Structure formats: C-alpha cells, structure tokens
Amino acid sequence: MDGAVRKIIHVDMDAFYASVEQRDDPALRRRPLAVGYGAARGVVAAASYEARAFGVHSAMPSVTALRKCPELVFVPPRFDVYRAVSGQIHEIFRAYTDIIEPLSLDEASLDVTANRRGLPTASETAREIRACIKEVTGLNASAGISYCKFLAKLASDQRKPNGQFVIPPEHGAAFIAALPVKKFHGVGPKTAAKMNELGIFTGADLRDQTPEFLQRHFGKSGSWYYAIARGEDNRPVNPNRVRKSSGSETTFKVDLTAPEDIEDGVRSMADEVWDWCEQRHMFGRTVTVKIKFADFQQATRSKTHATPVMSREALRAATIELVRSVYPPRMGIRLQGVTVSSFEDERQEGADTYQFGLDLVIAS
C-alpha cells in the first residue's frame, strides 16, 4: 500500500441527539425539537432540523431559542442512550475497517484504503455504511469521502442531511480554492475575521500567501494553513486518539497589569477555545486559567462544574471568575492560557440545567 492514495470517509450523524429523541417518541417527529432544558438559564444541546429552520442551534440560550420558535419542544438529554447508539454505529464501522478515529459520539473518520469488503469504490463503501446505520439504528448519517481527513470532513457537510459527497484528489485544490475560509473546519470566527482583515477570503486567497506571511500572522498554525490551502493533509486516521482537553495561550508584548486588560485577555482566549468546542460538539466541565507573571513564576486556577460549560458566555464568565482570584496581581502578567477539559464527563446526564456552576475550586 506504499504510495497508495488514501481513501478516507468522514461519517457524521444528522442532528444526532435530536434524531434519537424523535426516533424514540413518535409524537416528537416532524416537530421543532431541542435537546436541553427550557429553564431560564438553560442552553440548547442539540436541535432538530425542524428547529434549525427557525434559526435554533446548539449552544443557544433556551430563552433565545423559544423566542425564535415559540412552538419549540424541549426534552432532557439522555446521554446513556446516545452512548449506546454510538456503540452500535461503531460496531458497524468495524465491519469495514479497524482504522477508526472517533471524534465525538456521533462523528468519526474511517480509513478504508485496505477495502476489507472488496467494494468497488470508497463512495460505495460509504453508501453501504450509511444504509447499515439506517437499518440498525433507524437514524440518518451523512458522509464525506476524500484522500485526506481535512477534505473528508468538509465533504461531509456538503449534502446534509442524509447524503454524501466525494472530493477526489484531482479536485481537491480547486474545491478548497473556491471555499470561503470561514467554512474551513478548524477556522473559527475570530481567525476568519483576522484573515479577512488581511485580504484572505477564500482558499485561493490563502494559497497566494507565503509561509513566512502566514507564520508571522498565525504563528504555528501558519504552516498548517499553507498546506491545507493546497489540499495537503498527511495526518493519518488515528484509532488511538483521545482528546482530553482544548486550550489556548498567549504571551503578551507588554505585561498586563490593569484588570480590564487581564480580563480582555482571558476572554479572547476563552472565545478561541469555545470555537473549537462548538465545532466539534465537545463540551467539558473543567475550566483552567494559567497565568505566568513577569518573573516567569506561574499560577493556575481551575474549577470543575456540575454540568458541561455549554455556551461562549458561560465559558467567558468562568474564566473571568478564575482570573479575578489572583487580584491584585503581585506583578505584571506576561502570559495567560485557558483550557477546557473533562470531556468524558460531559457524556453523563446533567443534573438540572446546562450552565456553568459555582461548585468547587480544585487547584490553586
């Protein structure tokens, strides 16, 4: 298989949590549905396609969702059921390949280059996998097929719901060239806005930049952007991948001393971390703020919440609360970092509402 073009399928279930609820309760079918809690401080964990038609989406505050769709029906999440269905889906995957990289309960990348089932194309393999999922679970899945993980992920969004899309090697660069950078997987709103300010609006614009330019403006990510703009992604599908946290940190040109500057710093990093969590639908219970002072001494503050942090505003509030615990800072702050972890705990059933809690400071 040396030198063979890889065949990667990205499978993404359609409105997974909401679809499971509609499957199990016929009265909910074809109705706008939100998985979550309709309480004043509740947050939408998932929305059916009927709800999305009204502009309702995951991580939206419940009060906003109800304002957009007064007929919206809320049902509490049942993570034990979602895990069980996810297990059924992964059992289907294993009939086609052992090289499976789980990304969440409802999403995975599969390397089917070896073609265990002897099917004529990867497209036919994806079609059969989706049909099997439908037969076993009663749920719809969409799929993207390509020669690398980045493009397979992008392709999986092209024919949603209940469809699939292929990006062959000869079309990879052209597909990326025409795509707005804001639609690139892994490019959040903040990064997309920064690219736009630099005159980068599409993949073609990104491809026109030099490695030096991209590294100067985007640091370590610059080399990644340079590669994907050319349709290059050599990352293998990793069956042993377990993502335990997501974080962001920044070293400032001038040490921060004013409270408003310190809080602006962690708020900005919280936004970057939230973009990652929202894109992957992975929400953690533990929030950690790291601080490095001008003398390079470091302090961390962490809090583990009763339920996952399910909104940008909640993550911002949690980080600001933590950084305020070092006031007044003993000297200027040269570096700050924000991390979210305890993703596995998110897959347990919540207690009352999805909101950040005020439970326990674990580390100091």
From TrEMBL:
It catalyses: DNA(n) + a 2'-deoxyribonucleoside 5'-triphosphate = DNA(n+1) + diphosphate. The gene is dinB2. PANTHER family: DNA POLYMERASE KAPPA, DNA REPAIR POLYMERASE UMUC / TRANSFERASE FAMILY MEMBER. Keywords: Cytoplasm, DNA damage, DNA repair, DNA replication, DNA-binding, DNA-directed DNA polymerase, Magnesium, Metal-binding, Mutator protein, Nucleotidyltransferase, Transferase. Its main location: cytoplasm. This is DNA polymerase IV. It comes from the Bacteria. GO terms for cellular component: cytosol. CDD domains: PolY_Pol_IV_kappa (cd03586). The keyword DNA damage applies. Gene3D superfamilies: 3.30.70.270, 3.40.1170.60, 5' to 3' exonuclease, C-terminal subdomain (1.10.150.20), DNA polymerase, Y-family, little finger domain (3.30.1490.100).
